Amino acid sequence: MYNKEDKILIIGAGGQIGIELTEALNKLYDSSNVIAADLKPIAALPNNPFEKLDILDKDALFNCVKKHGIKQVYLLAALLSATGEQNPLFAWKLNMEGLFNILELAKEKHLKKVFWPSSIAVFGPTTPRNNTPQFTVMEPSTVYGISKQAGERWCNWYFNKYGVDVRSIRYPGLIGWKSAPGGGTTDYAVHIFYEALKKAKYTCFLGENATLPMMHMEDAIRATIELMHAPFENIKIRSSYNLSGLSFNPKEIANEIKKHIPSFEISYETDFRQAIADSWPASINDKEAHEHWAWKAHYNLETLVQNMLTNLNKKNSK
Ligand code: NAD
Ligand code: AKB
């Protein structure tokens, strides 16, 4: 469970989730034990040891794990849905080989515990769209979704075959004010706040009715930490857990922003990301996460919008 002395490696620590996750882990562990790894240095994490590391370099990864005596890995390096469609073969390579490199290290007992995120992208157009259950039809139509679905099966296999303690969440679209999103279909729900504050207008690449599952980053980080610190026997799903926060479409978030910035206007120019959004669920049923490790989201649309505008305003005025 919780050993304060464990050395932790976060791979992809400079990304949207990595920065906030590393900061949150700094509160639970000594920051000198939380090692941030990425392709380039991370200015936002001045208190953590940094390793320049390419997850595809198996030897460098092994050396890094040995050098620091790493016990837990959070593997966040990946190409997301939009960038993945533009670079499909590399997305498959990065998303799959990166995961294998970590699972193999865990299989050889060099690691105690692994976190690897999946996504709502594992679902596809034939999945029930509303209140999508944990176990259902999964025919993803993006390279990203295919890589996440395959990754889930491999996590489950390494757990069954070798007892690898790998834990995973199917994150919805994540919205936070501390870090920028890195190439997903749900990125509009972060960009909209920056543009609302700067120009009071935003042109959205998804249509007004594109309802998707979303979550405040604070909730997602808390879920990740709760899952990773839950007792081993409570984790009954070793593929990946459904996780629900809130659901909204561009029109609904724009209307909520308008309550704070009355002059705000949204317009729509859809692109290839609309088809990706159309293939994903509108809302998620996370009964298993709730039952197995007591998950519960805190933010709704009203509190999320309020929190984002307040914090981005403060950040801009510094
Ligand atoms: P991101 O793109 O913001 O960050 C990824 C980080 O990985 C970047 O800092 C990048 O430099 C680094 N990276 C890329 N290639 C690397 C390599 N070869 N070696 C080492 N580092 C490398 O992504 P994110 O939004 O923080 O997502 C992290 C994980 O969570 C991904 O697996 C993603 O699929 C998953 N996820 C994210 C969301 C979301 O809304 N952000 C939702 C569902 C799932
Ligand atoms: C994306 O849009 O690609 C990500 C995700 C939901 O996996 N935010």
How would you summarize what this structure contains?
42% of the residues lie in helices and 16% in strands. The protein is an alpha/beta fold and 318 residues long. It has a domain at 7-119 and 139-170: NAD(P)-binding Rossmann-like Domain (Rossmann fold), CATH 3.40.50.
Relevant terms:
14 strands; 11 helices; binds nicotinamide-adenine-dinucleotide; single chain; globular; alpha/beta; Rossmann fold; 318 residues
Total beta-strand segments: 14
Q: How many helix segments?
A: 11
Low-pLDDT ranges: none
C-alpha end-to-end distance: 39 Å
| Order of the strands making up the biggest sheet | 3-2-1-4-5-7
**Proportion in helices:** 40-55%
The CATH class name of the domain at 7-119 and 139-170 reads: Alpha Beta
Largest sheet: 6 strands, parallel
Overview of the molecule:
There is one protein chain. With 318 residues, the chain is α/β, with parallel strands linked by helices. The protein has a domain of 145 residues: Rossmann fold, CATH 3.40.50.720. 42% of the residues lie in helices and 16% in strands. The protein has 11 helices and 14 strands. Strands 3-2-1-4-5-7 form a 6-stranded parallel sheet, with helices on both faces. α1 packs across α7. The longest helix is centred in the N-terminal third of the chain and has 20 residues. It is globular, with a radius of gyration of 19 Å. The N and C termini lie far apart (39 Å). The model has no long low-confidence stretch (mean pLDDT 97). Bound molecules: nicotinamide-adenine-dinucleotide and 2-amino-3-ketobutyric acid. The site of 2-amino-3-ketobutyric acid has 11 residues, from loops. The site of 2-amino-3-ketobutyric acid (AKB) has 11 residues, from loops.
